[in-house]
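Internal tracking record. Fields below are filled automatically when a chain is submitted to the structure queue. Please do not edit lines marked as system-generated. If the sequence contains nonstandard residues, flag them in the REMARKS field before resubmitting.
Queue: standard
Priority: normal
Entity type: single polypeptide chain
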Amino acid sequence: MRIASWNVNSAKARQDHILNYLRAGSCDVLLIQETKTQDVNFPIEAYQELGWHVAFHGQKSYNGVAIAARMPLEDVTSGLPGDDKDEQARYMEATVSGVRVATIYLPNGNPAPGPKFDYKLSWMKRLRARADEMLESEKPVVLGGDFNVIPQDIDCYDPQGWEGDALTRPESRAAFYSLCHDGYTDALRTCRPAEVLYSYWDYQAGAWQKDNGVRIDHLLLSPEAADRIIGAGVDRGPRSKEKPSDHTPVWVELAEPARRCRRARSPSDACCSA
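SYSTEM-GENERATED OUTPUT FOLLOWS
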């Protein structure tokens, strides 16, 4: 099973790109962020015409997440637990062929420090609590999405230029690594420990052409999912299309349960210290 995560920066504007990605057989499950559309306007029919199942959780103009899969979606839930007053559409879960997946659009947090950064850290604390609950199930879990965190300097083309940004601040990195310390594995760093990998390039200043990118889109796996890793990577193709999202998909491939492969590295090795 190949699970991909993609911040599409508008499901409507990127509809053709998304559908072409699915038609190409690029993944079996797609975790989508920044749909930027209310549920009533989500193009569900386009996915159904391809034979895909889809669930979505959106709001007008901002945020919004969705999960699309070849296989049926079971036990779908929307919203991150822990704050009944939080109405931002940033989180959704579903079970696909026995794997619990979550699509995540974590708050940016800028300017930092400030109220937006406080909200980010509070949101990450809630995410950790929910992630720990899922670990207790001892079932395969994949947390995928735009985490708006640059974990290490290798994940940024210009570490000094990003110093002090909410995406690189020590508090953000510590919150990200708390998930790893609890038992989740960073799939891309497990499979490609020393490779320069980016998933986001700004639209401005020729960032794509200069490869001035950052890695902020991540796939974190519970031990039961990490035991099944075959490979992981970044699909840069969609970013090169006309009128693309500023993000590109990241993916992880899992062996079927009967064909489990031994994980090459432990969770603590996969997530470098903050």
